[in-house]
Amino acid sequence: MATNTKTTDYQLHLKGFVGGYDFDADYVDYILNKNKDSEVHVLIDSLGGRSNTALSIFSAFKRHGNVNVHFVGMNASAATIASLGIDEDTFDRIMEYADMDDDDRDAFDEFSEAFGNDCVASFKERYMGQWDSEKDFAEHIVDECYNLDDMMGHLASYFDYEAYARDLFIDDFYFSNGYVFRR
C-alpha cells in the first residue's frame, strides 16, 4: 500500500461562514501581506456565506498571485467564489445552471456548444424541446398550428413533412442531437 508522505503546511485556515469572524477578508489580507513573497496554502471548509466577502477574498488571492487553495469537507457557494475567482455575473449563471433539472441541463449544454452562448435566458427563449428528428418536430408544428384535415380534406395525407422540416431548419430552427432551438 502506497502512503502519501507529503504534508502541507497551511498559512491560512478558512472555516465556517464566509464573512464570519473566522473567514474574514481583513484577516485574509493580513495573512497574505505577512507572506507577500511566499507561496501561501489556504485550507477552506465552508458551506457558504456572503458573496461580497468571497469576492474580496478572491481579489486578495489574485493580488498576491501565489495562492494554492485546498478544500476539505463540503464546500459551496460563497466559498467557491473565494477560491475559484469568478465574478458575480458568472456566479449567477452557475446558480441558474445548478437550478435546472437534468434534462434542461443536457439541453443547455447542447445549446451552449452549438451556439457558443452560455446565457440561460437566451437558452430559455430559444429552446423548443426534444424530438427524434427534424420531421417529428415539423409534424408537431403542423399539429399545433394547423388543422390539415380542415384545410386540405383527404389530401392532408399527402402533406410532405420532410420537405416542410427542411424549410423550417434552413433559417428558423436548429436541430442538434435531438434538441431543437430557434435560431
Helix content: 40-55%
- What CATH architecture of the largest domain would you give? Alpha-Beta Complex
CATH topology of the largest domain: 2-enoyl-CoA Hydratase, Chain A, domain 1
Mean pLDDT: 85
Please give the count of helices. Answer: 9
CATH top level of the largest domain is Alpha Beta
N-to-C terminal Cα separation, in Å?
A: 56 Å
The helix/strand order is EHEHEHHHHEHHHEE
Alpha-beta content class: alpha/beta
| CATH homology superfamily of the largest domain | 2-enoyl-CoA Hydratase, Chain A, domain 1
* β-strand number: 6
Any idea how many domains? 2
Description:
There is one protein chain. The protein has about 180 residues and is of the alpha/beta class. The chain folds into two domains: about 80 residues, 2-enoyl-CoA Hydratase, Chain A, domain 1; about 80 residues, no CATH class. Helices cover about 50% and strands about 15% of the residues. Helix 1 runs parallel beside helix 2.
Overview in brief:
This protein has 183 residues and is of the alpha/beta class. Helices cover 50% and strands 15% of the residues.
Helix-strand layout with pairing:
Elements: E1 12-15, H1 25-34, E2 40-45, H2 51-64, E3 67-71, H3 78-84, H4 88-99, H5 102-115, H6 120-126, E4 127-130, H7 134-145, H8 148-152, H9 161-171, E5 173-176, E6 179-182
Parallel strand pairs: 1-2, 2-3
Antiparallel strand pairs: 4-6, 5-6
Helix pairs in contact: 1-2, 2-3, 7-9
Q: Main traits of this protein?
A:
single chain, 183 residues, alpha/beta, 2-enoyl-CoA Hydratase, Chain A, domain 1, 2 domains, three-stranded parallel β-sheet, three-stranded antiparallel β-sheet, 9 helices, disordered N terminus
